[in-house]
Write a structure and sequence with these properties.
The chain has about 190 residues and is α/β, with parallel strands linked by helices. It has one domain: Carbonic anhydrase (Beta-carbonic Anhydrase, Chain A). Helices cover about 40% and strands about 20% of the residues. It contains seven helices and five strands; from the N terminus they run H-H-E-H-E-H-E-H-H-H-E-E. The longest helix has 14 residues. Bound molecules: zinc ion. Zinc ion (ZN) binds next to helix 5. The site of zinc ion (ZN) has 7 residues, from helix 5.
């Protein structure tokens, strides 16, 4: 998978110049600003939900859950791992933004689960031309085990109040279907 991604990257980098790197995006924004879109008044998550999922560009987290802007807090990182910063964000979302339930959502065909930590670290070393011995890509060898661990980390955090419900889910990219890997639990 890393080889395939590297191939796509080389193709993309071939046409990006610094000056017009964002030009197509501002064009898109013109179209977005021109159409009427709902301005949700409050930053509180209407459905009391936070979704932690992967950065994979094939995932549309709101669509996956049948939600709309205003409904949920979305956190994303490579592999949907519960990192210190994920905990920081969840703690604030629970304390101030109405979050009462948290879904940790990994997915099929995830690059973080398809390569070893050594391979992913080597890709970063190759891209930068130097080794980074303390860099941990948080590669996933067993998605179910990683979900169990990560749900436990959320539930065990002293930064989240008791009673928040946490589940670990797997999204099948092909079917769009979610499977419960870690049943909803509360601390
Ligand atoms: Zn992924």
């Amino acid at each position: 998978m890393l080889a395939r991604i590297g191939e796509e990257l080389r193709r993309l980098l071939g046409w990006i110049s610094v000056d017009d790197a964002f030009a197509d995006l501002f064009e898109g924004n013109e179209r977005y600003a021109a159409i009427e879109h709902e301005v949700v008044e409050s930053g509180v998550a209407r459905r009391g939900l936070a979704i932690l999922t992967c950065i994979d560009s094939r995932i549309d987290p709101l669509a996956v859950f049948g939600l709309e802007p205003g409904d949920a807090k979305i956190l994303r990182n490579a592999g949907a791992r519960v990192t210190d910063d994920a905990i920081r964000t969840l703690a604030l979302a629970v304390a101030t933004l109405g979050v009462t339930r948290i879904a940790v959502v990994q997915h099929t065909d995830c690059a973080m689960a398809s390569a070893s930590g050594a391979e992913l670290a080597a890709a970063v070393a190759a891209a930068t031309g130097s080794d980074h011995p303390t860099f941990d890509p948080l590669a996933i060898t067993d998605q179910s085990a990683a979900l169990r661990t990560d749900v436990d980390v959320v539930l065990g955090s002293a930064l989240l109040r008791d009673g928040v419900v946490v589940a670990g889910l797997l999204l099948d990219l092909a079917s769009g279907r979610l499977t419960t890997i870690v049943e909803p639990r509360t601390s």
